[in-house]
Write a structure and sequence with these properties.
two-stranded antiparallel ribbon, 48% helix, mainly alpha, Multidrug-efflux Transporter Regulator, Chain: A, Domain 2, single chain, 176 residues, elongated
Length: 176
């Protein structure tokens, strides 16, 4: 079967199938016309690849595991090398999750601290207007940093600044 048919039968786009082939996960013969030709086993192989990708495995991990894969789900034959590779990947995932959890906790702490500091003492959010005169000083340090970085070039609008603003509108107050 050609790549278009394999794509239709597996629901995987042809670009991804070519990627799988480049990564050594999928094999195709070439017809006399140069087109890729896949056998019936390619459907099962693509389904196995998709399941293993869904488990968070890299294409490199999958290339190592595929010879031990049986069935669509797939089931993996538990040889010691395979188990060691999967345990290693699981440990990397656990490490990444722990790092993300620490980052999330730190960000939540910053949010809590900022909320405790209270935004009520700052003036409500007003969009800056372009003027050649220097902006007024804000009590908020982030605002002062933003104000000091406003470009005087006519082609750069101050609204395009990516700096944070402490001058926030209280979400409990209806918009004017």
């Amino acid at each position: 079967m050609r790549i278009g048919e394999l794509s239709r039968r597996t629901g995987v786009n042809a670009h991804q199938l070519r990627y799988y082939e480049a990564q050594g996960l999928l094999e195709a013969d070439r017809g006399a016309n140069g087109y890729r030709e896949y056998d019936e086993n390619a459907v099962l192989r693509v389904k196995q690849i998709r399941h293993l990708l869904g488990a968070g495995l890299s294409s490199e991990d999958i290339a190592y595991l595929l010879p031990c894969a049986v069935g669509e789900a797939p089931e993996l034959l538990g040889c010691p090398e395979l188990l060691a590779a999967m345990r290693s990947r699981l440990q990397r995932l656990d490490d990444q999750m722990a790092t993300l959890a620490r980052s999330r906790d730190a960000l939540a702490d910053y949010i809590d601290a900022a909320e405790r500091m209270g935004g009520e003492s700052y003036p409500p959010l007003t969009m800056p207007t372009w003027s050649p005169s220097p902006p007024e000083q804000s009590e908020c340090p982030a605002e002062r940093r933003k104000d000091s970085r406003i470009s005087t070039r006519a082609d750069v609008a101050p609204e395009a600044s990516a700096q944070p603003s402490c001058s926030t509108v209280d979400p409990r107050t209806p918009a004017a």
